[in-house]
Amino acid sequence: MKKILWIFILITGFIKAQIENPIHWKSEIKHLKDKEYVAIFTANIENHWHLYSADAEEGIVIPTTFTFIPNSNIKLIGKTQEVGQKIKEYSQAFKANIVYYKNKVEYHQKFEILKDIPLNLEADVDYQLCNDKICLSPDGESFILKIEPEKNLTVSKQSNNDINKIVSPSENIVKDTFNSKNNPEIEEVKIISNTSDSVNKNIIIANLDVDNPINKECGDKIIQNEGYLWIFIFGFLGGLIALLTPCVYPMIPLTISYFTKNSNKNGKRDALIYAFFILFIFIIFTLPFHLINGINSDIFNQISTNVWLNLAFFIVFIVFAFSFFGYYDITLPSWMANKSDRASESGGILGLFFMALTLVIVSFSCTGPVLGSILAQSIQNPTQLTMAFSGCGLAWALVFGGFALFPNLLKSMPKSGGWMNTIKVVLGFVELALAFKFLSKADLVAKTFLLKREIFIAIWIIIAFATALYLLGLIKFPHDSKKSKIGTSRKVWSCLFILIGIYLIPGLFPSQKPNLKLLSGLTPPLNVSIYKKDKEQGTLGLSIQHDYFEALKIAKEQNKPILVDFTGFGCENCRKMEEFVWSEADIWQILNNDVIIASLYVDDSESLPEEEQIVVQLKDGRNRKIKTIGNKWSVFQKENFNSNSQPFYVLVTPDNQILNYPVAGYMKKEDFKNFLHCGIQTFKNLKK
């Protein structure tokens, strides 16, 4: 219950979370004695907001925690201490004690340096802010402080204020706000500067201006709608399929009977309101994901390409599949349905809302896997998720609202029966196939490359033929009748799945050209194959660099433009572009002969060398710790090209000038060819 309440609070804070930043951090280091120092992190909190203490009960609220990056030359002394006016009170909302600070709090961490040399102290803080109405989503900050040991520096208490210095990330110094009046025992003071000189190196390129390319006359921006229409249609079809499951279909006549009992006028009005509430509830479910997107513009890409999350999706979809096979049911807690059902009896508009909510809750055992599939497919973009859920909700609203307006249509509906269980089991096979898609994505992002393309395809072939055998009655599940008759429709559908299996078979054999183009983006890429020993072999045999600056050197040597390809291991549209468009003979020739390709993977989880793990100050003033290759290229794309979508293509000269407008997303061959010709011709004209 506490977790549900917490989620609700996060949802209600959706709008505020996108624009509020009511906390300001300052950091400093002071010399205590000999080789002992103290790092002080000060949080200045705006009025009406509070910051949770490290002593807060985890699972109820988000405690403030400091993590110090290990350094063999620095020894931490004790735990991080909080200095401020701590407030402890009992929360009726959480049914627990909460501990927090208002206005200002300092965090002190003592440490000892083991070598008398300049060192860096690196720390990350994770925290959450709330006021009396909303909570902002969990946030964080990174600090790098430079320690420059200096002996025999003693400052009297009276002169402390004279040596205070102000800092911003760009000024490379730290503001000393530590007042000796509060710490009279400290007499030796050393102001330590921040190591921002390495910040932004090789990340922000000053002369890259995405809005002012050299040639504005050709290669106009391709306006991307991110496939919203297709995502909406996908959700709509998913909603229609869910309506045919045994959890939902029998509820149609039961629900419609409520409206037929009312007067004709009120019945039609209530039917429209009821249909609206169904759609509204589906949309409401997506608000938390917009909240997450408001925190960090590339968070959805990070989530969708997270190895552990994709492994979790793999397990969840296996669980969904066996639920559809009839071995168990997945349901929401009964108390949710009971409370919603009782609330629906109140009548009026509020009663209609709870009727719609009850419908969604009690049908969860069948719709949950369908909605889960939509969620997993749409998680790269919250707007796509809203469009998908809107499509699903609209399908339900049209069916339930339509039958409520015209109850005579119920007579034409087929009766409930075993056919609904057949649909449910077939959906189980679909869920099983999708499970391996997420296992493949985890495998690609982790760069283990264990699930080869041919193995993946073989699994799908087995699933396709198993589905056909089930439809022919040769495989039985718990809810199937042992003496059920196999009708014509089941035989027709079994033939369809047999054809799918046959279509997949060529994918088991090596081919110079991409096959199975209809499944491009779903199957592992061509170079993850049992027939190719070198897992790093370039896509389609092209020579591809994976570092922008290495590509820049080659471009200068060969006097060619660079095609910057922002991509991802888990990016389906990137694979589609490579297998549908790049593989075309004329496009391949251009890519092979006229440009230097730099494919930058924004979801590469491999850690950068320690010396390259830096903190970058973003355009919005926030600091971002760059730890992995994916972090580096994700920030590189966002800060230089104002985009965080993939695929994203830019043509750049060897001296870092953008040739024409970038393009994004999956596009037709001719559009991509025009983009390439435009930029390459512009580059050739520059050389004349």
Provide a concise account of the structure shown.
By secondary structure, this protein is α+β, with helices and mostly antiparallel strands.
CATH class of the largest domain: Mainly Beta
Indicate the proportion of strand residues.
15-25%
- The assigned CATH architecture of the largest domain is Sandwich
On the 0 to 100 scale, the average pLDDT is 74
Q: What is CATH's topology name of the largest domain? A: Immunoglobulin-like
CATH superfamily of the largest domain: Thiol:disulfide interchange protein DsbD, N-terminal domain
Strand line-up across the major sheet: 12-14-13-17-18
Shape: globular
- DSSP, total strands: 18
Helix content, binned percent: 40-55%
Number of domains: 3
Structural class per helix/strand content?
Answer: alpha+beta
Rg over alpha carbons: 30 Å
As an assembly, this protein is: single chain
The description of the largest β-sheet is:
5 strands, mixed
Instruction: Extract low-pLDDT stretches.
Output: 1-19, 151-201, 222-226, 293-297
Count of alpha/pi helices: 20
**Distance between the ends:** 70 Å
Protein name: DUF255 domain-containing protein
GO molecular function, one term: protein-disulfide reductase activity
InterPro entries: Cyt_c_assmbl_TM_dom, DsbDN, Thioredoxin-like_sf
Domain Cytochrome C biogenesis protein transmembrane: 230-440
